[in-house]
Amino acid sequence: MYKFHLKFLAFFLVLATSYSADIPFSKVRLSNYYTPHFLRLSQIVFGTDEIISQGGYESIEIMFREIDLNGKKVLDIGSGFGGVAIYLAEKFDVEITGVDREPYMVACAEKHLEQHRESLVGKVLFQTLKETTRLSEFADNAFDLVYSKETFYHVFYNEKQQYIDEVFRVLKPGGIVVIADWFQSSPERGEWLNLASTVQELCQYSTPQSFREILEMANFENLSYLDQTAEHIRYTEEEIERLGQEAETVCMELGESAYSKSAASWQLWLNAQVYGDLLSGIFIARKPGG
Prior knowledge:
By secondary structure, this protein is of the alpha/beta class. Helices cover about 40% and strands about 20% of the residues.
């Protein structure tokens, strides 16, 4: 059912040329990949203007289903278009600061925030990070909870520990971290995951075990991991179906080539999950004390 037809590979190889191997590793930026063109496509496929990650509101509910957010001060790392923070602030009396490294994302999030201002129960603020792997604008012990949805697989391998150390620093004693992310199933990428990672340098997956070790090295405790791969296979299938239904819109707005490349890319993403190369899961951990 999921066997990938080889004719899609031609489309994918064209898509992959958006990254040049001549760009120094340290200079690769998300903005080179998450262009307004790609983000508009993501909005169509995900079926929402404000959440540019899989699963929509259902996946958000799963992330926080056992956590009481009322009265909490929260940091959203990689807030994107602001959909997660806005959704939570419409349900809970919570104070959320959303941060992203791309000013374009922050500007879009602020626009969406204004559209929801009257429906908020809590408070939301969005800002651009000053540094890509540090949270230097925030004091020690500043937040009750830090969360991230599908962001840390974009953090370079040699910077993940530093970033998680920063998360630990800004959390109050007893504070909670919730990280929903993509992982590779083994230390060496499988064939399908290599094909699905269109920009290798921006898809730097940990295994669940290696990410657990990073959290442990930062001194987090009470670690739990919830595998969500089956749910994300369903989400991807729904997205492929939606892409087909919106083919006319995509071709009209972005061009027929964009539609063809996107259909190939999403199918590769599905195959990487179905054949076990790509996993999705949620880590929850606690800072000692409190």
